[in-house]
Design goal:
- The chain is an alpha+beta fold.
- It has a domain at 279-466: Butyryl-CoA Dehydrogenase, subunit A, domain 3.
- It is built from 18 helices and 14 strands.
- The strands form 4 sheets. Strands 2-1-10-11-7-6 form a 6-stranded mixed sheet, with no helix packed on it.
- Helix 5 crosses helix 8, helix 5 packs across helix 9 and helix 8 (276-314) packs antiparallel against helix 9.
- The termini are far apart.
- Bound molecules: flavin-adenine dinucleotide.
């Protein structure tokens, strides 16, 4: 079938998917007023493939057949491939005004993790299934969401623990026959699943033998019987109180996906009972996905720095010492993120025969972005001043009785209009929402999950450094 056009992508979403938004069943996600914004955001991936200036980044040749395929589904072979993928995500996010399309990237991370884990297991059947599934995605240019996060119930109790309120807090196999398996459970916060073609479900934690029915990974088309999605509302239009902007609004929603006894044929099952490998699948997905996170956060971090520079200039404080200090902190914030994201590609590791971004650096990149995000906002708020929250609205600006006062009194340094300042405050308010703060903290795993991986992955290097100082101290006689 080959690459889909953006229109073909939209058409492919008009199927029997079961999606609820604000308590109502959605007939067509492509025309629903809120979800259309999300679909259009996701379609950027497909648009890029048609843009001459981005085609080489978005599309590569299939290594065996030579067919054009999305770069997301190309198995990386070296640092350059990883860097190109990073660049693709940064560019796509810039085109999305700071929002990544999410139609391929998370799903591709999960698919690569499935592939790596099958290779690590050395299980021929799974390797073949993973390859076939990859080819299915490549050939049909399908969009894929990754459903990893189970709803979990009591976080501390194991999935199979009798102390869990019921056995379905983690997705698990409830039946099997010669044709396939039946799964039950629910996954939360699954980004873009309502407007993807496929859902690739993987476990979200390490498992023990007693949890083996929960060690399950599989893929289903989104409109499979028994798959029910409940979405959270998204901002999809500008309020009349905001200055109009001639650019599309970009946004995403995330789904609570209920797997209500869903049948999955064997050819789409990638893990089923091999409990020891659930952890490998989780870790490999996390390494890959945190790199995706670090990549798409680059334009967002740049946006905060850009807005801080603009506000400092508008308010005439660019050369004030403490403002320069704050801008310096923001420069460090942005460039540490960019450097870690790129360095993790250059200094890659190989898992299951496939290069992956360096696990320590990639977790550090995501952790750095997330743990300093509120601090970054604090700095921008200090530079911007209180009008960030007390500014009059666009309607006040338009009102002939008061508009001229607003234009006169809310200007900045000489030559900076009130409108420029009010527009920048408006943009910043959209960037500084509680939603964005929570996304920074929790999306792609909470702080502790990154710290844990940094520690575990750094054990070998820590041992090496210990050896170096023992040698220097004359405690051991060779390195
Ligand atoms: C906007 C957004 C988009 C997302 N998109 C996706 C997606 O596309 N696919 C997907 O699979 N997931 C997605 N996620 C889920 C994300 O990975 C989770 O939110 C994250 O892993 C935290 O899980 P939680 O929300 O259940 O919080 P919790 O797990 O409840 O975490 C809350 C706190 O409890 C701690 N905690 C939890 N369990 C334990 C434990 N056993 N022991 C000790 N401490 C514990 C955590 O460290 C944290 O401090 C998304 C999340 C957000 C916010």
């Amino acid at each position: 079938m080959g690459l889909m056009t953006p229109e073909e992508y939209r058409k492919s979403l008009r199927d029997n998917r079961v999606v609820y938004y604000e308590g109502e069943k959605v007939k067509d996600v492509t025309t629903h007023p809120a979800l259309k914004v999300c679909v259009d955001t996701a379609a950027i991936d497909y648009e890029m493939a048609e843009m001459p200036e981005h085609r080489d980044l978005a599309v590569v040749k299939h290594p065996k057949t030579g067919e054009p395929i999305s770069r997301y589904y190309y198995t990386p072979t070296n640092a350059e491939d990883l860097l190109k993928r990073h660049e693709l995500m940064v560019t796509a996010t810039r085109l999305g005004g700071g929002v990544i399309p999410f139609s391929h990237d998370i799903g591709a991370d999960a698919m690569n993790a499935v592939n790596i884990t099958a290779n690590m297991m050395g299980n021929k059947e799974y390797i073949e299934r993973a390859e076939k599934y990859r080819y299915h995605l490549q050939k049909n240019d399908l969009s894929v969401a990754c459903a990893m996060s189970d709803v979990k119930g009591d976080r501390v109790e194991r999935p199979s623990s009798p102390k869990q309120g019921h056995p379905d807090y983690y997705v698990h196999v409830v039946d099997k026959n010669e044709k396939g398996i039946v799964v039950r459970g629910a996954k939360a916060h699954i980004t873009a699943a309502a407007y993807c073609n496929e859902i690739l479900a993987v476990p979200c934690r390490a498992m023990e033998e007693a949890d083996k029915d929960y060690a399950v990974a599989f893929a289903v088309p989104v409109d499979t019987k028994g798959v029910i999605q409940v979405l959270h509302p998204v901002q999809h239009k500008r309020s009349k109180l905001e200055f109009p902007i001639d650019l599309p609004i970009r946004n995403h929603t995330d789904s609570l996906i209920i797997f209500d006894d869903v049948f999955v044929p064997w050819e789409r099952v990638f893990l089923c009972g091999e409990w020891k490998f659930a952890m490998h699948l989780v870790y490999n997905f996390a390494y890959l996905h945190r790199h995706t996170a670090a990549s798409y956060r680059v334009p967002s971090a740049e946006g905060f720095l850009g807005a801080a520079v603009a506000m400092a200039e508008y308010n005439g404080i660019s050369n004030v010492p403490h403002i320069k200090e704050e801008l310096t902190d923001l420069v460090i914030y942005v460039n540490t993120l960019k450097s870690l994201a790129r360095a993790s590609c250059i200094d890659f590791a190989t898992h299951g025969g496939i290069p992956i971004p360096n696990p320590v650096l990639t977790n550090m990149a995501k952790y750095h972005f997330a743990t300093n995000f509120h601090q970054c906002i604090k700095l921008v708020q200090d530079i911007a001043g209180g009008l960030l929250v007390t500014a009059p609205t666009y309607q006040d600006f338009l009102n002939p009785d008061i508009g001229d006062f607003i234009k006169k009194y809310l200007g900045g340094k000489s030559g900076v209009t009130a409108e420029a300042r009010l527009r920048m405050f408006q943009l910043l308010r959209r960037m500084m929402t509680v939603e964005n703060e929570t996304v920074a903290v929790h999306a792609e795993g909470s702080f502790q999950s990154q710290r844990l991986m940094i520690y575990v992955e750094a054990l070998r290097e820590m041992a090496q450094y210990k050896k170096q100082v023992e040698y220097a101290a004359g405690i051991i006689d060779k390195l």
